[in-house]
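[stage:ingest] chain + small molecule (MRU)
[stage:ingest] validated
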Amino acid sequence: MPSLPQAAQQSPLRRLSTQAGEQLEILDQTLLPWRKAWRPLSTLADTEHAILDMQVRGAPLIGVIAAYGLALGLQKDASDNALNAISARLAATRPTAVNLGWALTRACERLRPLPVGERVAAAWREADAIAREDADNNQAIGAHGLKLLQYLADRHPDRPLQLMTHCNAGWLATAGYGTALAPIYAARHAGLSMHVWVSETRPRNQGLLTAWELLEAGVPHTLIADNAAGLLILQGRVDAIIVGADRIAANGDVANKVGTSLKALAAAHQCLPFYVAAPTSTLDFSAVSGDDIPIETRSDHELRFVAGVDCNTRIGRLCQIAEGHSVYNPAFDITPAALVTLIITERGVSPANEPALARLSRNPATTDT
Ligand code: MRU
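[stage:predict] done
[stage:export] tokens:
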């Protein structure tokens, strides 16, 4: 499997083991792409706030940070009651990304049988392991996805491969290279000629984070308004779409950032490949279909106010709509499995259907692309 260079990997979290104890810092994503600022997370409350306020975001990263939040919370009280209460508080922060519950369940199962006095150190170790595995998974997703991109690129040797993505599923959303962006980084590393259409992703504009990542990585890209995607797809200016996922139901329905399903519909109309890249920790077999996935409804403020920098480079918000209008802000949507060409995981690629996903989850060996 071709691997990405270590130098290409950036991280939205920093771990330090000092004499004062274990420490965690996060890159505050509410200030990006305008300012790069690190913020210490010292308590359970800091962690809860960081996830709720989306200082950290992206399904895999939320899982990793929640595991660290558990370790921070246990530092105060590592009893059984505290373990359950801390885990419940963190699990309630964001409902759609299943990696959050997955990471907390995994950590709690590891910690519960241990003597109380050993739990804090073990919680830090488990969170580190979850973060390391996430980075390894990203690398594997990149390698599997690269084969698909290479195949598509070979069909058009005379021009760059035209990809489209939605939201941000890059290194900012994970502990490694990203999910949807991992194959793109791998393709860049392999010298494949490509260009990426990046949709803005209203209302939180996580597409701006993707554009920022791609600029830093030297990947040719163009930012578009979400509403421009249909035009480009139907004009034949896109060869494939690749997105991440926040939860994948047993039948292959995919919850991802709101707006994803519109791109999938347009892609299906054009018979374009629509790929979903996610680690197997994003699979949720307890959700029979997308109907069982809770969709997070976020604050109306995200629609009422637009964030940006003024001419003095001060970060601020502008109100774009007066109070009095009713506002509805679902953060995710469900793309039906029938519109998904393949799911790219660390174990290989899979069709988006129940038997294939069940096989993938049973068999840790990779399925070849
Ligand atoms: O609300 P967010 O920004 O936490 O949303 C999660 C996402 O970043 C996307 O839905 C992404 O495409 C999947 S997570 C890598």
